[in-house]
Design brief:
Family: Belongs to the small heat shock protein (HSP20) family.
Number of strands: 7
Strand content: 35-45%
Number of helices: 2
Protein name: SHSP domain-containing protein
CATH class of the largest domain: Mainly Beta
Distance between the termini: 90 Å
Organism: Paraliobacillus quinghaiensis
Radius of gyration: 25 Å
Largest sheet: 4 strands, antiparallel
Helix content: 10-25%
Shape: flat
CATH architecture of the largest domain: Sandwich
Strand order of the largest sheet: 1-2-7-6
Order of helices and strands: HHEEEEEEE
Structural class: mainly beta
CATH topology of the largest domain: Immunoglobulin-like
């Protein structure tokens, strides 16, 4: 019996025991998401720090905000000119990362800056407008 066939059988047994989505929990461990982010929240603001090395033109980074989700698209390029790779720890390549935000944010108050390989995105919380109480008139039917 070939070793990979045994491994496939083992995986099927694990899927049967834990459920077929068991391995999805390990996606971030086996293939870490890029770009790396730190996300912080206050009562009125979310700040997202994004590690994006090597961008000389920030127009090549796409940022989309939709209610309570932030989406980042682009390509991290690290060009080596010669030689054989001995160690490669800096994640690179095309990315499409969707980040769930803790609350809906305003579309008109978003600020993004990029300096020294760090993208900082500031998003302001969408505060629900206070509605005024409106008195409702009641028609009395027994008088009609």
């Amino acid at each position: 019996m070939k070793p990979f066939e045994q491994m496939n059988d083992w995986k099927k047994n694990m899927d049967h025991f834990f459920g077929d989505k068991f391995w999805n929990e390990f996606d971030d461990v086996l293939k870490p998401p890029i770009p790396h982010i730190n996300l912080y929240q206050t009562e009125k603001e979310v700040v997202c720090y994004v590690s994006l090395p090597g961008f000389d033109d920030v127009r090549k980074i796409d940022i989309f905000v939709n209610q309570s989700q932030l989406e980042l698209n682009g390509t991290i390029k690290i060009e080596h000119h010669r030689g054989q790779i001995i160690k490669e720890e800096i994640l690179h390549g095309t990315f499409n990362r969707k980040i769930d935000l803790p609350y809906p944010v305003r579309e008109d108050k978003i600020d993004a800056t990029y300096q020294y390989g760090l993208l900082v995105i500031r998003l302001h919380r969408l505060m629900q407008e206070q509605t005024k109480k409106k008195r409702l008139d009641i028609r009395q039917l027994d008088e009609e």
